[in-house]
Amino acid sequence: MALLPFSLxxxxxxxxxxxxxxxxxxxxxxxxxxxxxxxxAILLAFVLAGTRGMKRDPMxxxxxxxxxxxxxxxxxxxxxxxxxxxxxLPFIGTLFLFIFVSNWGGALIPWKVIELxxxxxxxxxxxxxxxxxxxxxxSLAYFYAGLSRKGLRFFELYVEPxxxxxxxxxxxxxxxxxxxxxxxxxxxxxxxxAVGVLVYLVPLIVPLPVMLLGLFTSAIQALIFATLTAxxxxxxxxxxx
Amino acid sequence: MTWLxxxxxxxxxxxxxxxxxxxxxxxxxxxxxxFLLNALFFRPVGKVVEEREGFxxxxxxxxxxxxxxxxxxxxxxxxxLKGARQxxxxxxxxxxxxxDRLYREAIAQAEAEANRSKEESRRAIETxxxxxxxxxxxxxxxxxxxxxxxxxxx
Lengths: 241, 154
Prior knowledge:
The complex is a heterodimer.
Chain A: E1 20-23, E2 26-29, H1 30-51, H2 61-80, H3 85-108, H4 128-150, H5 166-201, H6 207-237
Antiparallel strand pairs in A: 1-2
Chain B: H1 22-153
């Protein structure tokens, strides 16, 4: 900082600092919860405003909500199938909306205005805890889907089409949540860091293309997470011939 | 802003891959959000969208049925119209033929009449000429006999 003639208020990089909250012996990342509450508040406000007084001929926000609903339904229906997609639509949709609003919120809300004692606010999805939590929920979801529908025959999936696949399928159960969580976490964190570094170096105009690219990848990541979730659940529900 | 700093001394080191109680709590939060959004968003919006889809498909079916009815009626009317046209055409040809026949009949009758009266007058002229000639012959005979008588007497 000594090289710069003036200090830039919004351009400082902090990685791996957290605002710790303590409950008993447990520690929480406070900044992740604060930003996730803001994200949830935005989502709920948007949904509440849009679903008030819905009509058969949609007006205003209802259009957008219906578009979103259709979009999520298509993801769920294409991957799970006509018969069961209704049960999983809310889960997939919630993941999509939460990740999408988190990612875009992380990029669009000027978090630096709010000063924290330690750590900094940002997209909740840039914290490994959030993404691992969601990835494990996805694993639980497709195990639950498969087991509740097919019982122990769900595990026939492991020896199809041949028993040789068994070790790979078992490894896959670990790589699925791993890749889901790290893909999202890595993309969002890397985007925030890239933008942060650029803003630190050249505060004007130059970071804009990277920011736009960040918005694009953020949206894609939400779509990928939701689509993969739907695909895994569909795979768990798939009826063997 | 110190109220945000809930942790006391001895906070962990931190780091990028610092997994702690944030994970299960975030999972619980996401599950709760799922239920909330299901109640506030997915169910009501889904209901509205599916009701509309149902409404559209029933009105479509309705419209299709009505269209089929209309097409049937149209075909029926076209059939009737065709029949009526044919009937009208038949009436017109019949009338034309009738007129033609009457015309020819009238012409033939008139011709026959004319011929007949021509013939009649020709015959009348003939008879009159005959009678006139016989009369004249008689007179000529009388006159010649008178002349002969006079000459002989002279």
